[in-house]
Design brief:
EC 3.5.1.2, pyridoxal 5'-phosphate synthase (glutamine hydrolysing) activity, binds glutamine, EC 4.3.3.6, three-stranded mixed sheet, alpha/beta, pyridoxal phosphate
Protein backbone atom coordinates (compact mmCIF):
# COMPACT_ATOMS: atom_id res chain seq x y z
CA UNK A 1 0.00 0.00 0.00
CA UNK A 2 1.26 3.45 -0.89
CA UNK A 3 -0.19 6.39 1.03
CA UNK A 4 0.46 9.85 -0.44
CA UNK A 5 0.58 13.07 1.53
CA UNK A 6 0.00 16.31 -0.38
CA UNK A 7 3.21 18.05 0.60
CA UNK A 8 3.06 21.72 -0.46
CA UNK A 9 2.34 23.43 2.82
CA UNK A 10 1.04 22.67 6.31
CA UNK A 11 1.44 19.67 8.60
CA UNK A 12 2.39 17.09 5.99
CA UNK A 13 5.42 15.77 7.91
CA UNK A 14 3.31 15.11 10.99
CA UNK A 15 0.78 13.27 8.81
CA UNK A 16 3.55 11.15 7.31
CA UNK A 17 4.72 10.13 10.79
CA UNK A 18 1.22 9.41 12.04
CA UNK A 19 0.47 7.35 8.90
CA UNK A 20 3.65 5.30 9.49
CA UNK A 21 2.59 4.68 13.09
CA UNK A 22 -0.87 3.59 11.94
CA UNK A 23 0.58 1.21 9.32
CA UNK A 24 2.87 -0.25 11.99
CA UNK A 25 -0.04 -0.75 14.42
CA UNK A 26 -2.05 -2.46 11.71
CA UNK A 27 0.96 -4.58 10.68
CA UNK A 28 0.60 -3.39 7.10
CA UNK A 29 3.69 -3.17 4.95
CA UNK A 30 3.15 0.22 3.37
CA UNK A 31 4.98 3.26 2.04
CA UNK A 32 4.25 6.87 2.84
CA UNK A 33 5.28 9.28 0.09
CA UNK A 34 5.06 13.03 -0.48
CA UNK A 35 2.93 14.09 -3.44
CA UNK A 36 3.66 17.30 -5.33
CA UNK A 37 3.47 16.26 -8.97
CA UNK A 38 0.99 14.39 -11.14
CA UNK A 39 3.27 11.37 -11.65
CA UNK A 40 3.55 11.03 -7.86
CA UNK A 41 -0.24 11.25 -7.54
CA UNK A 42 -0.64 8.47 -10.08
CA UNK A 43 1.34 6.01 -7.94
CA UNK A 44 -0.61 6.27 -4.64
CA UNK A 45 -3.52 4.18 -3.33
CA UNK A 46 -4.86 6.98 -1.12
CA UNK A 47 -3.97 10.59 -0.34
CA UNK A 48 -4.02 12.86 2.70
CA UNK A 49 -4.57 16.61 2.33
CA UNK A 50 -3.11 18.16 5.50
CA UNK A 51 -4.07 21.14 7.58
CA UNK A 52 -2.38 24.42 6.81
CA UNK A 53 -3.76 27.28 4.77
CA UNK A 54 -6.36 26.15 2.27
CA UNK A 55 -5.93 29.13 -0.08
CA UNK A 56 -2.17 28.50 -0.31
CA UNK A 57 -2.56 24.74 -0.79
CA UNK A 58 -5.18 25.29 -3.51
CA UNK A 59 -3.17 27.92 -5.40
CA UNK A 60 0.01 25.84 -5.35
CA UNK A 61 -1.87 22.67 -6.40
CA UNK A 62 -3.34 24.62 -9.30
CA UNK A 63 0.05 26.05 -10.34
CA UNK A 64 1.57 22.56 -10.22
CA UNK A 65 -1.19 21.27 -12.50
CA UNK A 66 -2.30 18.86 -9.78
CA UNK A 67 -5.70 20.22 -8.77
CA UNK A 68 -7.74 18.88 -11.69
CA UNK A 69 -6.02 15.45 -11.85
CA UNK A 70 -6.51 15.12 -8.08
CA UNK A 71 -10.17 16.00 -8.41
CA UNK A 72 -10.59 13.45 -11.23
CA UNK A 73 -8.86 10.72 -9.20
CA UNK A 74 -11.08 11.42 -6.20
CA UNK A 75 -14.19 11.28 -8.39
CA UNK A 76 -12.92 7.93 -9.71
CA UNK A 77 -12.76 6.65 -6.12
CA UNK A 78 -9.27 7.44 -4.78
CA UNK A 79 -9.57 7.44 -0.94
CA UNK A 80 -8.79 10.88 0.48
CA UNK A 81 -8.43 12.17 4.03
CA UNK A 82 -8.75 15.95 4.26
CA UNK A 83 -7.94 17.44 7.64
CA UNK A 84 -8.70 21.05 8.58
CA UNK A 85 -7.53 22.99 5.48
CA UNK A 86 -7.84 19.63 3.68
CA UNK A 87 -11.50 19.41 4.70
CA UNK A 88 -11.99 22.91 3.27
CA UNK A 89 -10.42 21.74 0.00
CA UNK A 90 -12.90 18.86 -0.25
CA UNK A 91 -16.11 20.78 0.49
CA UNK A 92 -18.66 21.80 -2.13
CA UNK A 93 -19.76 24.82 -0.11
CA UNK A 94 -17.10 27.02 1.54
CA UNK A 95 -17.29 30.42 3.18
CA UNK A 96 -15.26 32.31 5.76
CA UNK A 97 -16.71 33.19 9.17
CA UNK A 98 -15.67 36.84 8.75
CA UNK A 99 -15.54 37.65 5.06
CA UNK A 100 -18.18 35.24 3.74
CA UNK A 101 -17.80 33.73 0.27
CA UNK A 102 -14.67 34.40 -1.71
CA UNK A 103 -13.32 32.32 -4.48
CA UNK A 104 -10.37 29.99 -3.91
CA UNK A 105 -9.18 26.91 -5.83
CA UNK A 106 -10.89 23.87 -4.33
CA UNK A 107 -11.49 20.21 -5.07
CA UNK A 108 -15.13 20.76 -4.13
CA UNK A 109 -16.58 17.28 -4.46
CA UNK A 110 -17.91 16.56 -0.94
CA UNK A 111 -21.48 17.19 0.17
CA UNK A 112 -20.60 19.37 3.17
CA UNK A 113 -20.80 23.04 4.08
CA UNK A 114 -17.58 24.31 5.68
CA UNK A 115 -17.07 27.65 7.38
CA UNK A 116 -13.43 28.67 7.56
CA UNK A 117 -11.99 30.16 10.74
CA UNK A 118 -15.23 29.34 12.52
CA UNK A 119 -13.76 29.74 16.02
CA UNK A 120 -11.76 32.89 15.29
CA UNK A 121 -8.05 33.49 15.00
CA UNK A 122 -4.95 31.45 15.88
CA UNK A 123 -5.23 32.22 19.60
CA UNK A 124 -8.72 30.73 19.64
CA UNK A 125 -7.21 27.31 18.87
CA UNK A 126 -8.23 24.71 21.43
CA UNK A 127 -8.26 21.08 22.48
CA UNK A 128 -11.45 19.14 22.97
CA UNK A 129 -12.63 15.65 23.74
CA UNK A 130 -14.51 14.00 20.91
CA UNK A 131 -16.26 10.66 20.72
CA UNK A 132 -14.62 8.33 18.19
CA UNK A 133 -16.89 5.34 18.86
CA UNK A 134 -18.26 5.42 15.31
CA UNK A 135 -14.81 4.50 13.99
CA UNK A 136 -14.17 1.90 16.66
CA UNK A 137 -12.54 4.05 19.35
CA UNK A 138 -13.54 5.84 22.51
CA UNK A 139 -13.18 9.44 23.66
CA UNK A 140 -10.02 11.15 22.43
CA UNK A 141 -8.44 14.53 22.98
CA UNK A 142 -7.83 16.32 19.68
CA UNK A 143 -6.62 19.75 18.66
CA UNK A 144 -8.41 22.40 16.60
CA UNK A 145 -6.08 25.02 15.10
CA UNK A 146 -7.74 28.05 13.54
CA UNK A 147 -10.22 25.40 12.64
CA UNK A 148 -13.12 25.40 10.24
CA UNK A 149 -16.48 23.91 11.15
CA UNK A 150 -18.61 21.58 9.08
CA UNK A 151 -22.08 22.98 9.64
CA UNK A 152 -24.15 21.03 7.13
CA UNK A 153 -24.01 17.62 5.45
CA UNK A 154 -26.28 16.22 2.76
CA UNK A 155 -26.44 13.46 0.14
CA UNK A 156 -24.38 10.44 1.15
CA UNK A 157 -22.26 12.30 3.71
CA UNK A 158 -22.35 10.63 7.15
CA UNK A 159 -21.43 12.29 10.41
CA UNK A 160 -18.84 10.29 12.39
CA UNK A 161 -18.23 12.76 15.22
CA UNK A 162 -19.57 16.09 16.38
CA UNK A 163 -18.88 18.86 18.85
CA UNK A 164 -21.39 21.43 20.13
CA UNK A 165 -23.71 21.19 17.16
CA UNK A 166 -21.06 21.16 14.40
CA UNK A 167 -19.55 18.13 12.71
CA UNK A 168 -15.91 17.29 13.32
CA UNK A 169 -15.60 14.16 11.20
CA UNK A 170 -17.68 13.30 8.13
CA UNK A 171 -17.40 10.52 5.55
CA UNK A 172 -18.87 10.30 2.09
CA UNK A 173 -17.73 7.01 0.57
CA UNK A 174 -14.03 7.39 -0.28
CA UNK A 175 -13.93 10.91 1.21
CA UNK A 176 -13.10 11.47 4.86
CA UNK A 177 -12.93 14.97 6.38
CA UNK A 178 -11.96 16.13 9.86
CA UNK A 179 -11.95 19.70 11.18
CA UNK A 180 -9.36 18.77 13.84
CA UNK A 181 -5.74 17.65 13.41
CA UNK A 182 -5.59 13.85 13.84
CA UNK A 183 -1.86 13.90 13.05
CA UNK A 184 -1.24 15.90 16.27
CA UNK A 185 -3.20 13.55 18.48
CA UNK A 186 -2.11 10.71 20.75
CA UNK A 187 -4.43 8.35 18.93
CA UNK A 188 -3.69 6.97 15.47
CA UNK A 189 -7.29 5.85 15.08
CA UNK A 190 -8.32 8.30 12.34
CA UNK A 191 -5.33 7.26 10.22
CA UNK A 192 -6.06 3.59 10.89
CA UNK A 193 -9.65 4.15 9.81
CA UNK A 194 -8.46 5.90 6.66
CA UNK A 195 -6.10 3.00 5.89
CA UNK A 196 -9.09 0.64 6.22
CA UNK A 197 -10.83 2.69 3.51
CA UNK A 198 -7.80 2.25 1.25
CA UNK A 199 -7.79 -1.50 1.92
CA UNK A 200 -11.44 -1.87 0.86
N1 LIG B 1 -7.69 28.46 8.84
C1 LIG B 1 -7.13 27.61 7.82
C2 LIG B 1 -7.83 27.83 6.47
O1 LIG B 1 -8.85 28.46 6.45
C3 LIG B 1 -7.25 26.15 8.22
C4 LIG B 1 -6.49 25.90 9.51
C5 LIG B 1 -5.82 24.58 9.60
O2 LIG B 1 -5.74 23.83 8.62
N2 LIG B 1 -5.29 24.30 10.76
O3 LIG B 1 -7.38 27.37 5.48
Amino acid sequence: MKVGILAYQGSFEEHALQTKRALFNLKIDGDVVPVKKVNELNSVDGIIIPGGESTTIGIVAQKMGLLEPLKDKILEGLPVLGTCAGAIMLAKDVSDAKVGKKSQPLIGTMDITVIRNYYGRQRESFEALIDLSKIGGSTAKVVFIRAPAITKVWGNSKVLSELNGTYTMVQEGNLLATTFHPELSGTTLVHEYFISLIKK
